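Quick one - first record:
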Amino acid sequence: MSSPKNLDEVRRLERLAFRGWRALESHDVQGWHLRFSGGYTKRANSINALDVFTSTDIEAVEAPFRERKCRPVWRLTPLAPVEMADQLKARGYEPIERSLLQRCPLHDGFRADPAVEISPGPSPAWIEAFAVHSPVRPEHRETMERMLRAIAQPAGFAFVQHEGRPMAMAIGAVEGDHMGLFDVLVMPEARRQGLARRVTESLYAWAWQKGARFAYLQVVATNAAAMPLYAAQGFRTVYEYEYLIPPAS
């Protein structure tokens, strides 16, 4: 079992990530942090524990999702009651993704690549590339744009283009001594050129200048393409979490 000290660190990183990639609406219910964003992304439409002493009343916690006619998505971190996963699985809820929150120390050895543009807000070209390559469904486009503009400040929208075509992109959000790294994308035609490294390390250099001394990210545990890069940059897993969804009705 995680120690109280470790759980305090989990809680701190959770709150940083909530603010780094903001939901359009959020509420706290019986020790759970509920996030709503019109169904766009699991993370921004999820049920998240704030403390190990949270309620296990599934119906009460899910009620705000049911009222909005949204599917409840449980995101279980070490802060969730230990029995929660078993209770949900007994009802037929299915785990759909195991993910890792990883962190690495930053240093002044990370260098900005001159080909990587970093802007405080998303340009129209950045938004269009993100919508196409993320990809974002048409009905979620407006929600996506609102969420991008709500990212914690200072934010850095990294972008690489070649002859007017998008090549790679990512987002950094700095709060205090941490930078959250979100949505690293390299377009299919630009892969195997080191662009993921160049974009992320440019953001680390940018964040260092903003006073950040650590970077954190959330990555799917089976993402074999990204994990070696993050490990080489110094990222290590702080904790794991998984998503559980109800059976189809």
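second record:
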Amino acid sequence: MESNRVPNNQMALKGVVLVLALIAAGAFVLARGLDDESDSEPAASQPTPTATMEAEEIPDPVDETPTDDGDTAPTPAPAPEETQAPDPAPEETQAPAPDPEEELECRDPSTIGVLVANGTDVSGAAGRLSGELNTANYITLPPVNATPQVNSAFYYRAGYEVDAQCIARLLGETEKPLFPMPDPPPGGITLDTLGNAYVLVLIGPDSLAQRPG
């Protein structure tokens, strides 16, 4: 009877071991299946951070000139231009003396106004010369005094140079200088005093001042 119990115990032990092996195998298969499922699931998409870049402020260009030590220095502002002084008034230009042999186309003396001014201390010089021209039929304005002069001269308004030459030739004073009429007139004479005279005879301390009346 004892010999039959031993094999039965061995059979029971083998059954238990088999069951345990099956349980372990099932557990292993189940664990592998769970791992595969977890691996096969797609990873949750993570939001991609968006980089926000602020607009970089670009500084204004600066004109810089490199110095000897390699550093840059700002270019200095240009110096202001110098204002040139106005040109001085042109000096009086003497008209060329007419050729004594040249025939002059003189206007009618009765259409030419003449003013005689005395720039000397010779009393009555302007009055005497005005009377002489009036006798030649020139329109003479009342004679006046002028500031002291160095010499005599004839002045003419634009377009009346030939008439001034005619008066100088009439008086025998073709060597005296002739000038265009300046503004203001010479000798301290005003435009109002000059009036409608086209020719001014300015007497200096020479032969014009010594003419007999």
